[in-house]
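Continuing from the previous page...

OK, I double-checked the sequence for glutaminase against my notes and this is the correct one:
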Amino acid sequence: MPACTPCRASASSTRPSVRQVLSVMTTCGMYDAAGDWVSNVGIPAKSGVAGGIIGALPGQVGIAAFSPKLDARGNSVRGVVICEQLSRDMGLHMMDVSQIAMSTVQTSVATIVAGVHEPHNRNCQREVIVFKLRGAVRFPGSERLTRAVARELGRPNPDDPGSGLHGDACAVIFSFREVYSLNHVARRIIHEDISRLILEEKIVVVIDPSGVLQWNHDEAENDRHPKVVRNETEARDFIGGTGCKAVSTDDGW
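Thanks. Re-ran it with the corrected sequence; updated structure tokens here:
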């Protein structure tokens, strides 16, 4: 993919240029330690004799470290250690990308329509926003979810048309029904995202029939935790009252 500036969608480098730079970083960016680096860290990187290391894993993450003390090969001693730990703890080795690529985040919006049992529920005719995750969710997948939540529920960004449109949604739903694997780093990040929304007084519902997010169902009944349910029907009933419906372009809702 072409390289883009952090705050704009425009590309700053072409695809061939990015591929060439990353290839050189992978094969010789760490001087004579390039082979050990690829085996132990697995992130294209470039070090400098001043003690800096920068790395980029395409489509997933960029990292940087600085510590002046160098090893015999001219690389930062502490920088190498922390990059090895990040790669190991967060599952960032490029040879693991096949599993990471299976993780996706889908966003949809639905309007709650009153049911016959509770026609005057306060959330009827209001929008809910749904974040669906699929596959094996690791750090890159959870980070994409964090970005999606910030984009949809945060303040509008002039450089990102369409952002901040659903900050007044009556509820936020996270669906893990199609998630089959969730590592501890991704789980912690998602827990923090949900906790932050609850502190902002959002109604948060988690669809988690397999318990991959590991919320305690007993604790989930109080106001400090999300409502944990097994399916979409239970989520709709909790938000809009028993028998309510949700109108959405997404067939799953």
